[in-house]
Queue: 2 jobs
Job 1
Amino acid sequence: AQALVDEKDAQAVALGYVAEARRVDARKYPKFAAGQNCTSCALYQGKAGDKAGGCPLFAGRQVAGAGWCSAWAKKA
Ligand code: SF4
């Protein structure tokens, strides 16, 4: 399996990625709302039930389904 994205990775820091959406800094990211996470993001490539999956913003690695970043976009 591909490695999980490290929150301290430069790209993760730049995007405000956290592996657990409940740890999002709401002051820094006021657009964050409950229910937003990688699983509910349009860019997430994991299948239903997967704990992690691919994201085009983190090529070659996996993001946590429960994670979040500031590029979150609502699934159509
Ligand atoms: Fe998660 Fe979406 Fe951000 Fe990718 S773009 S890390 S799937 S919230």
Job 2
Amino acid sequence: MRLLITGGCGFIGTNFIYLMQERHPDWKIFNLDKLTYAGNRKNLLKLEQDENSGYTFIHGDICDKKLVTSVLNDHKIDAVVNFAAESHVDRSINDPAPFLTTNTLGAQNIMECARSAGIEKFVHVSTDEVYGTLGPDDPAFTEAHPMEPNSPYSASKAGADLMARAYFETYKFPVSITRCSNNYGPYQFPEKLIPLMFLKAQAGEKLPIYGDGSNIRDWIYVDDHCTGVELTLLKGQPGKVYNFGGAAEKTNLELVHELIAILGSDESLITYVKDRPGHDMRYAMNYALAEKELGFTPAVTFNEGIRKTIKWYQNNGPWLEEVLSGSYREFMDQWY
Ligand code: NAD
Ligand code: TDX
């Protein structure tokens, strides 16, 4: 298979490329990434420097029609996995425009280019956040739940999901959509809850909890999400949506207490700060369809995954230092 991955220098894309390279050494993987603040080419330098790895990096934007078309045709791409996105909710609250540009218009652009190039399989990576929010006693989201996005980020992702649906219905374009819950694991940018709390706890800095910390997220180890995307690529039906989750619902406060316990840090660092506007109360995923049709099941328990993740961050200080510079620092100073 000759596979185009977009956004492969980000958190999930990096983990996905390493896993696929290990599981399918015969695949040729092309990674198209714009290298925003969240993209780090060095994550995959090992593969780039190994001429037998079958991996190629291409610097560029999914919104660039000419470039995407030539990548698809010149490299004779069979299938596409679209991870590229602006992914942080707080940033989307500060400035929604780049979210609409990449997440909605960029997704439409790459689907249009892939349709023209006759691509046989396209996986669009979406999120549980398109469903909106659940109350404490509501059943978990199924794929039939209406899309009720509450942040500019989730609205921009929902826009792409609707366009993907229209491309299938109108053109029979072979797109499948994945919607997954909160990922954690190596290479996650330290603006997201788990790496941010790790970083701050290590530095003995305050741990900012939005609101009262009762918001619930369903945590999945990144490799399990990657397996879900792989299964969708190999067995997913065109036009279908597949939910993935980790069966690990926790309030933010519970999670931060667990992190503090593992790190041997100090509970007095917990600080309650102003709530995120439009903050979704709870996400929980029903992934029975993916279990039945794709054979998906989350393999890594939270207990196991969080320890692996913390170990990775402890062993990768230079990676953290590098991403903790430039525009990232400006954003963090402005937000907190
Ligand atoms: P990330 O922010 O870590 O990485 C995004 C990557 O996309 C970066 O490498 C960036 O350079 C690249 N990119 C951004 N705009 C681009 C453009 N216009 N053209 C080409 N490349 C571009 O994001 P992530 O957490 O790895 O998320 C990957 C995908 O998974 C996103 O689509 C996100 O919506 C989805 N998702 C994430 C989670 C999560 O918990 N992180 C959960 C469910 C779904
Ligand atoms: O400092 C913080 N304090 C805090 O209380 C941060 C950064 C977050 N939070 C809360 C907000 C959320 O309830 O923690 C929870 C998790 O926050 P994020 O890590 O920002 O993730 P979330 O908003 O849930 O979205 C994530 O999961 C779905 C990803 O960023 C999205 O890309 C993905 O689609």
